[in-house]
Amino acid sequence: MSVASEHPRASDHPRADHPRADHPQADHPRAEQPRASSPDDDGTRRRITAVKFIVAGGFGVGKTTFVGSISEVEPLRTEAPMTVLSSGVDDTSAVSGKTTTTVVLDFGRITVDDTLIMYLFGTPGQDRFGFIWDDLIAGALGAVVLVDTRRVGDCFAACDYFERRSIPFVVGVNGFDSGQPFPLDEVREALDLAPHVPVVNCDARSRESVKEVLITLLTSLTARLSAGARA
Fold first, then answer.
1. Domains of the chain by range and CATH?
2. Which end of the chain is less congested by CB atoms within 10 angstroms, N or C?
3. Separation CA 174–CA 145 (nearest Å)
4. Which residues, at least 6 apart from 137, have a Cβ–Cβ distance to it below 8 Å?
5. How buried is 163 (Cβ within 10 angstroms: 0-12 exposed, 13-18 middle, 19+ buried)?
6. How large is the average pLDDT for residues 126-133?
7. Which one-letter DSSP state was computed for residue 178?
8. pTM of the entire structure?
9. Quick count: other Cβ atoms within 10 Å of Cβ 114?
């Protein structure tokens, strides 16, 4: 059985709308981030660029783990215990061991080299926290959308959100303990993604795997910028 048969394509079943999808986005131009400078050994000052990326996806897909695996500082987390009030609201059937949930954001930082710093902002996974998204994405240059192939439909809203706002993103198929049961081409088909959107396997628990996903996003952004410059 294919992932597409388990999760019908969006062309047949429209993706669930994000709670804020029909609201006009706040005017937050994704301009180049402010740059700082730091002195080199010869006294000259090198320019340091800070970039902001979003980590999104459905409930329990691994966003908090993804940010924590790569952050060079202790990640900021806004986790709250799950209570009986969430029973019947949050589907924990595929993540039965989950006892907490992100209610605002996750935050991490990565120093790529002497001139580039990445800031990662993880979104809440539940629709009821969707009102936070517009503020979180302000100034973001790109995003990672994590997918659990057991619940592909949970990431439709995130994909739609970034597509409608022309924010470049990469899809990371988080394997969990079940590995990667479906080929990436089937996942792409199930998500009805444009050909230019990268789809890669990942393990949110692995620093090296998370790094490869972020490198893919950076490479995709660089290619888009180069193509735009030539146009």
1. 47-85+96-230 (3.40.50.300)
2. C
3. 10
4. 28, 54, 121, 143, 165, 167
5. middle
6. 66
7. G
8. 0.72
9. 11
